Request: fold
Amino acid sequence: MFDGPLQRLIDELARLPGIGQKSAQRMAFHLLSVEEADALRLAQSITDLREQLGICSRCFNVTSTEECMICRDPRRDTSTVCVVERAQDIAVIERSQEFRGRYHVLGGSISPIGGIGPGQLRISELGDRVVAEGIEELIIATNPTVEGDVTAMYLARELKPTGVRITRLAMGLPVGGDLDYADELTLGRALTGRMEM
Reply:
């Protein structure tokens, strides 16, 4: 519909989650109207994101160093680990200000329909951490979906023999929902009222 670079930008923006063609078009025209320095700063931020970020060697959170800032923080409780599906789930839990332990990012959830089995997730690394780091409690904070529940049950079954206490977030979170959409109060109550699995 538009000439060369403008249409390519619209097409690329429309590939982002939650962005349709109309929103992509508005964004592209907005970028045309801003100062060149602002547009270049955005472009550089995207380049820096790809070039400078990696995965934490301990918990698999996103970081620009060998270990993320949470794993490096000596004030965090090293005996408790909260297991999440995605790195962005960490920010949601941190906003509740109820959890002071560390994290482990699985990289998704078990989904036979989606072709994701336990081998595609960072479950063996979690088992290694439980033993090597002397972790006493795992809080399973997978999403309250069928896949999240299956993943939680699988983790409980696989890791129970290690003697680690395994809990799951309380059911204050809506079933079928995403941690991204939970408010701080609901998430805080879910963390406080977690139950043994």
In short: The helical segments are 4-14, 21-33, 36-52, 69-72, 88-96, 123-132, 146-159, 184-192. The two ends are 55 Å apart (CA to CA).
